[in-house]
Structures are given as C-alpha cells and as structure tokens.
Write a structure and sequence with these properties.
Length: 325
C-alpha cells in the first residue's frame, strides 16, 4: 500500500513538473494555439508508400489540430535517433516514429520514457523486450502480407509439377517489413519443394536498387519464373531490368509485390505485375486519435493492426479510378 501511495505521489510530482515542461500526463505544455505537439521521426522518402504515408500524417495532424514537428531520417537510424533526442529536448507532448530497422532503440526510448514523453510506434515495430518503452504500435501485419503473397503463388502453380524458380527483392536490411514479409512468404512456399528461392537480396525499398539487383539476378540466373518484391517500387525498378533483358514482365516472369500504391496498381492493371498485397500508408487519422488518447493518459490497445486487402489484375482495373494514393 505504502509503495502504491509513493508511486502516486511520485506520479503527482512528475505531473507537476511536466505541466511546465510538457509530456504525456494530460497537462502537457501546449503548441502555439494550445495544440498538442507531436514529434514525428519519419524513415525517409524511399518509396511511393512513404510519400503517401507522410502526406497522410501531415494532413491528419492539420485536421486534428495537432502541431506536427516532422523530420526525414533519409533511411538512417542515427538520424532518427537524433530527431527523437531533439523532440525530447523540445519537450513535445508525444513522439511517433516509424523505426527504419527493428533493433537498437532501447537507449533512446528509455530517454523518452524518463522524460515522461509517450512514444507511439507507427508502421514498423522495434524488437525491444521492454514493451513499456512505447504505448502502442499502429501498423500492418507484415508476416500476414508475406503469407498472402505466398498463398497466391501456391494457387497460381497448383496444377504444375515443374520446379518454380523464385527471386526475392527484400526491403531494407533489418527492417520489420523485410524480416516479416520474407518469413511469411517462406512459411507458405516452403511447404512444397517445387518452390525454390534461388536468390534473395535487399533492394532497400527503392526503385533504383530494385532495378540494379534485378539486373544482377537476371545475369546470374538463366531461368527465373517468379519475382517476389517486398514493395511496389522495387518491383517497378525490376520491371525495367526485365524489359531491358528482352523479357516480358508479368508473362515470362510473374511478379508479386506489396503496397498497392498508384504506380504499382497501374502496372498491375497493365499486366506487368500479377498480384499485389496491399499495405496501407493511410495511418494518419488513427495515429492522431491514439496520440490524443495517450497524452490524456487514456488506455489504448497495445497493438492496432491496419485493415488490408489484395489485388488481382482485374481488381486493380476496378480500383484504380478511386484509389487515394
Ligand atoms: O514499412 C512499410 C514499407 O516501407 C513499405 O511497404 C515500403 O514501400 C516502405 O518503404
């Protein structure tokens, strides 16, 4: 009991301090017009998905009356850590970030916790054992996305007994979507020995790298049946490489990607991609709701999973005219 009272007194003292300097206690320092202040440490601008995600966060902050401090880490963990430390120094009310890689966050997250600034993970997860370092994680189930890609492939080749040679373009090394999309896909296709992943390498989620790595795959492997790319952008870069090698994307080499951004959906509708697993970047509105709740000290679910679908070529043609990104 005594312990509990001390904890309450301590919480009260912390709350008093934070009234003056900002934090996650509901009485935090306010932005210019009394708005909640969020520091958002974005991964970068590596893909169409990321651009749509940034737009969603910025627009939602505006309509939710949240003052947004935004930084672009150019896909470097050290830049994200610097941005988070700067938000801690600025005593923002809440920090949200999409971790470029999964590991190496404990120290800076502990600093935010010690400053009593709540942290929300958005889009990507961290592998910290201490889940008290963040309030919630909003984003996709990347393992499930990988499984969906694998299931389509199994169905597509269900009547064939021949070996199926697959090349894989992984996302950023060490990132949650690269690790999980690889694992989910492997879990499904490894059930049938006719599927062989003959090459797997990172294309860093960018179009340029996707093209470069696919060119190398094509040179080294005379028979490629399928490309599984962890995002649309790498798939689109790979399409250029496939065409450059005189092959027909979508026919000579079947292509599965993840995201369903506009350019990917156009390539799917045009028959150059065969299947896309959706990963929604429109996380802004839910992020602002969660931020308001955690700053007020309200309970939020530890995990909020984004709702997503998949697209065949026919479905892409139907969806394209009303697609938001
Ligand atoms: O974390 C989400 C992934 O990051 C998207 O699938 C990819 O396009 C982006 O760069």
């Amino acid at each position: 009991m005594l312990k509990r009272i001390s904890a309450l007194v301590l919480a009260g003292a912390t709350a008093l301090t934070l009234t003056a300097c900002g934090g996650g206690d509901g009485s935090a320092a306010k932005g210019g017009d009394g708005a909640l202040v969020m520091g958002f440490a974005q991964v970068g601008a590596e893909s169409g998905w990321r651009t749509a995600n940034t737009k969603s966060v910025q627009e939602s902050a505006k309509s939710a009356g949240v003052e947004l401090k935004f930084s672009d880490a150019q896909q470097k963990q050290e830049n994200q850590i610097k941005a988070i430390r700067s938000y801690i120094q600025q005593k923002v009310d809440v920090i949200a970030f999409s971790p470029v890689v999964e590991s190496g966050w404990d120290t800076v997250l502990k600093e935010a916790k010690d400053a009593n600034i709540p942290v929300i993970l958005t889009d990507r997860a961290v592998d910290s054992k201490d889940t008290s370092l963040y309030k919630t994680f909003l984003g996709s189930d990347f393992i499930e996305e990988g499984r969906k890609a694998g299931k389509w492939l199994v169905e597509e080749y269900k009547d064939s007994k021949d070996p199926v040679n697959i090349v894989e373009l992984q996302g950023t090394t060490g990132s949650a979507p690269a690790n999980d999309r690889k694992a989910g896909f492997a879990e499904v296709v490894s059930a049938d020995s006719k599927f062989n992943v003959i090459a797997s390498q990172s294309g860093d989620f960018t179009r340029a790298k996707g093209k470069e790595v696919m060119e190398a795959f094509l040179k080294a492997n005379p028979k490629i049946d399928v490309l599984y790319a962890h995002n649309d952008d790498m798939g689109l870069g790979a399409i250029e490489a496939i065409e450059g090698a005189g092959k027909v994307p979508g026919k000579d080499i079947k292509i599965i990607t993840v995201d369903a951004v506009h350019d990917g959906m156009q390539a799917l509708a045009d028959g150059k991609i065969n299947y896309i697993v959706e990963c929604s970047p429109l996380l802004g509105p839910q992020l602002m709701d969660l931020a308001k709740k955690v700053v007020k000290g309200e309970q939020v679910p530890a995990r909020v999973v984004t709702e997503e679908t998949t697209f065949t070529q026919e479905q892409a043609k139907q969806a394209l005219p009303t697609r938001q990104y």
